[in-house]
Amino acid sequence: MPAASTIVNVVVSGVLTGIVYGLMALGLSAIFGVVRLVNFAHGELMTLAMYGAVVAFQRLGLDPFLSMAGVAVVFGALGYALQRGFINRFVSRPEHAQMLLMLALAIIIGNVLLLAFGPDARNVQTSYQLDSFELGPLLVDKVRVYAAIAALVTTALLGAFFRLTLTGKAIRACADNPLGARVAGLPVAHLYAVTFGIGAATVAVAGCATVQLIDVTPGLGPAYTLLAFVIVIVGGLGSMVGALLGGLIIGLSEALAGLLVSPSAKSMVSFGLLAVILLVWPRGLLGGRR
Amino acid sequence: MSESGTAPEVSTGVAAAKPAHADPARRRRLVAMGLLGLASLAMPLLGTSYLLSAATLALYLAYVGQAWNVMMGFAGQLSLGHSLYVGLGAYVAAGIFVHTGVGPWASVWLAVGACAAVGAFIGLLAFRLRIAGVQLSLLTIAFAELARIGFDHIDALGGPGGLFLPVVNRGHVDLLGFRGPPTLYYYAMLLLAAGALALCALLLRSRAGYYWRAIREDEAAAEAVGINTFRWKMFAVVLSSAMTAVAGTFFAFYNNSLFPEQIFGFERSVEILVGPVVGGLGTLFGPIVGAVTLVVLGDGTTELLNRAGVDLPGVRQGIHGLLLLLVTIYMPNGIWPPLARALGFEAKRL
Fold first, then answer.
1. Are B68 and B276 in contact (CB under 8 A)?
2. Start-end of H helices in chain B
3. Given CA atoms B293, B296, B302, B304 in this order, what sign does their dihedral have?
4. CA-CA distance, B341 to B343, in Å (whole number)?
5. Among B78, B321, B332, whose Cβ lies nearest the Cβ of A104?
6. What residues in A contact B322, CB-CB < 8 Å?
């Protein structure tokens, strides 16, 4: 049994990672909840954002925590355009056709990244990357703390947007009843596009926040897509609070499994949890009843 | 669908009144099949070693695509984790060979049994608990990923470092040990692909084929007319996983090295489904047409670039993605149905 201080350290680190996971999955959940689209390219969007942060750092010397705002804006616009000009035409296609469409986009993004940047890992090295905050026996990486703060701020902004603005309320109306929203005269195509833009922007923030914690390679996409799916299935597909809760659960359980069992047990736990939740609780913890 | 044109001849008795050669579409189909068969048989005599390996790959993809198509194309159950059955089939056969020296003729049955059992287990869980659509495909991914991580921890099978099959002779044909020159593997895969095609043709005309398509189109309606949907969905999953196991066994002895990271990877599951989707979901010749298209455009382009001295990783899969995108947008039924019409393979419907 590891020492108590080690466990506390791992728990804190797991919670911080979980907050970023939650933000990453939030976009997937919002897109599914509103557009009813299963975004199989979510992890590829995240990887694309990571390369955005890497390029901003290498070319312009921008810290990822500064460039994330710019990357998020670009991704928001990109997501809006993608949904408005392209995906909206397919919302009435069968579910599997939409999934295959997003899968095709995912393969293309992943391999364009491979063509553009090559297979070698890239990373961002800042002056504070290896520093940590010390609170008594507690030792927390600065990067992890900043990443969690960025994720919390983004999540709060998003929450405020959906609660307080008219557009946010209209999007929630769309999610609750797409036909009713259309009948009431809401611009559904525009709202779908805004939602996809928000989803892309949030995953971009998550990507920029994560870029200092791992080596960036073009092949990261599928793993992040699957991770995001694990999180939203655990939390409840379509529920935004559920995505955050799922992020925390997965972040924590991965960290604890890594410490108590073995580092490679991390993803075993996530996928085991995915299978169990799918089977016994297919709507997820906060997915509600149909 | 191309084969739907053949069904009325059998069932209405119209064709029985006329000799078979009176139907020009049927005659055309038979001639084309004969020519294709002869060309496939003669290929190793004419082709270079590169062409032979590309053709073997195309046949392999056609075969696993056919197996996947049974589950998704016929019965409408989307699996995104078929690498599970390729990997499990490969590891069972390779593990037995490495540890006991027993060749694939015996172990392939164990591989088939193991994959059918795992397929039945997943199907039982999913269909009893009424999981479908996105949730079902995520469940199939979850089990493939669990296998990938699990096999990383089996030291007797090499773990993450890989399992290597000893290669003794490449020169002469050893049919019993399934060892020999590339031509042997080409003909084995040709036999498998042809067998799968015949099996699927038979199934589509049988009760199972009609029930599957009823379930695919509207499961509630199928159940309402008295089809035991659970039983027939189970049949589709078990058959599909068992067929895929044979491909896994072949792959083990053809490739001679296995790594959990690669063989169980999500990319592999995607590679399996791109062919049948591009060729035409639920059609008999879709998986074949799709596999050939993927190999000609994907691997062909890569080879041409290599010969020009350009090495661009990502081109092959990028082309797969592009094909999948274009077909999903512009040809939702795949390239085979319109191609079959253009070639005059479809009986004229009045």
1. yes
2. 7-12, 14-17, 24-46, 49-69, 83-100, 104-128, 133-151, 182-205, 207-217, 219-224, 229-255, 260-263, 266-279, 286-294, 300-307, 315-330, 336-342
3. negative
4. 5
5. B321
6. 104, 108
> Are the Cβ atoms of A100 and B133 closer than 8 angstroms?
no
CATH number, domain of A65, equals 1.10.3470
Domain that holds residue A29: 4-280
Q: Is A92 on the interface with B (CB under 8 A)?
A: no
Window 181-240 of A, Cβ < 8 Å to B: 218, 222, 226, 229-230, 233, 237
> Tokens at residue B169, please?
């002779």
**Torsion sign across C-alpha atoms B125, A26, B271, A50:** negative
Q: Cα–Cα distance between B103 and A244 in angstroms, integer?
A: 51
Distance from CA of B195 to the nearest CA of A (A): 28
Q: Which residue has the tokens 């149909």?
A: A290
Q: Does residue A24 sit in helix, strand or coil? A: helix
Query: pTM for this structure?
Result: 0.90
What is the pLDDT, as a whole number, of residue B347?
62
Per domain, the residue ranges of chain B are: 63-265
CB contact (8 A) between residue B314 and residue A115: yes
Cα end-to-end distance, chain B, whole Å: 16
Q: Do the interacting molecules here have an ipTM over 0.95?
A: no
The pairing of strands B163-164 and B257-258 is: antiparallel
Please report whether residue A289 resides in a domain: no
Structure confidence by residue, pLDDT tens digits, A100-127: 999 999 999 999 999 999 999 998 888 8
The structural domain count of chain A equals: 1
Residue A288 lies in a domain: no
Best residue in B118, B149, B216, B310 for a mutation probing chain A (most A CBs within 10 Å)? B149
Whether A103 has its CB under 8 Å from any CB of chain B: the answer is yes
* Residue contact B135–A108, C-beta within 8 A: no
A286 domain-assigned: no
* Alpha carbon distance B234, B236 (integer Å): 5
- Interface contacts A/B by beta carbons within 8 Å: 108
Q: DSSP labels for B277-333?
A: HHH-TT-SSHHHHHHHHHIIIIIHHHHHHHHTT---TTHHHHHHHHHHHHHHHH-TT
Q: What is the pLDDT of residues B250-268, one digit of tens each?
A: 999 999 999 999 999 999 9
Q: Please name every residue paired with B179 in a beta bridge, in sequence order, or none if there are none.
A: B174
Interchain pair A264, B152: CB under 8 A: yes
Whether A114 sits inside 8 A of B328 (CB atoms) is no
Render pLDDT for A211-264 as a digit per residue (tens, 0 to 9): 999 999 999 999 899 899 989 988 887 788 889 999 999 999 999 988 888 777
For B328, the closest of A101, A271, A280 (CB atoms) is: A101
Across the interface, do A108 and B321 touch by the CB < 8 Å criterion? yes
Q: Which two tokens stand for residue B184?
A: 């042997």
Cβ-contact A211, A50 below 8 angstroms:
yes
Q: Exposure pattern of B91-103 as b/e (b: 16+ CB <10 Å)?
A: bbbbbbbbeeeeb
φ and ψ at A122, to 5 degrees? Answer: -115, 155
